[in-house]
Specification:
Elements lengths: L1 E7 L4 H9 L6 E6 L15 E5 L5 H11 L4 E5 L3 E2 L4 H11 L5 E5 L9 E3 L7 E5 L18 H11 L4 E8 L1 E2 L10 H22 L2 H24 L3 H18 L9
Helix pairs in contact: 5-6, 5-7, 6-7
Length: 264
């Protein structure tokens, strides 16, 4: 028996319904609703689906919440904006039986070429992850200081550091429509994404390396975004002005050690 974990926040109803229809009724499914009051009318909800209402705690924190109530040895987290084949889960499980001593398995998002069918110490993108909960003792695996972006990068970095193995499977291919899960996403949400991307980037480097290292990795972005912001203001490009403002706002907030506070 396995558990599928899905996190939603005002999510596209068609995408959610589509992913649920591809999942077998034999699987346990936990949906963490970060929007607190998502309307599930006309969405196929079977008896195997457990809906947990939550405040908007972020993606990583929501996965932690699901893992802590999960009672199976295998859990698979899935974004709803991924495209998978009908037999994807069974193929994923077959790979998990072939690979010894793994903590997390990640499929190929179609953007990584490799001569090897399996790559150990993977640290890239992960919109789908298979967790071996027999190996993972601490169920709060994600750093909940991240609200959005870099949470899985941080997770893989820490796992590698602590000797927990993350494997990439080249031949298990999916496609991911990035940042498309929210229904009718507005420019305000897009700007908020930009804020969190910049905040999380600096925080990741600061946490895992040093404050000085984080500055070295991001100061060029600070200068570039500031120049583009001024240029956009002079040309009355208000959309780009707002975008660059939020990028700078997120980066500077992280630089001065503010917590990730901006929320929709």
């Amino acid at each position: 028996m396995i558990t599928i974990i899905i996190v939603i926040y005002k999510s596209d109803r068609k995408k959610l319904n589509n992913i649920l229809q591809k999942l077998s009724k034999d699987f346990k499914i936990i949906i963490i609703d970060n929007s607190t009051d998502y309307n599930f009318d006309n969405i196929t909800i079977n008896k195997n689906v457990n809906i947990v209402r939550s405040s908007n705690i972020g993606n990583g924190a929501a996965i932690n919440k699901a893992i802590n109530i999960c009672n199976t040895s295998i859990a698979i987290y899935m974004d709803i904006d991924v495209n998978i084949q009908e037999n994807f889960i069974n193929q994923f499980l077959e790979w998990s039986n072939q690979i010894a001593d793994f903590s997390i398995l990640v499929p190929n998002h179609g953007n990584l070429l490799s001569e090897n069918k399996i790559i150990e110490k993977y640290d890239g993108e992960a919109s789908i992850m298979l967790f071996n909960l027999k190996k993972i003792k601490n169920k709060n695996i994600f750093d909940e200081n991240y609200f959005l972006y870099f949470e899985e990068t941080d997770l893989f970095f820490r796992f590698k550091k602590n000797g927990l193995k993350v494997f990439f499977i080249k031949d298990l291919v999916i496609s991911h429509q990035r940042a498309s899960s929210i229904e009718n996403e507005t420019s305000a949400i897009s700007n908020l994404r930009s804020w969190h991307y910049m905040w999380s980037m600096f925080y990741f480097y600061k946490k895992n390396f040093s404050y000085t290292y984080a500055l070295k990795k991001t100061y060029i972005l600070l200068i570039k975004d500031f120049i583009i912001l001024l240029s956009s203001m002079l040309t009355f490009d208000f959309k780009n002005t707002k975008l660059r403002f939020y990028r700078l706002y997120g980066l500077v907030s992280s630089m001065i050690c503010l917590k990730s506070f901006l929320r929709p």
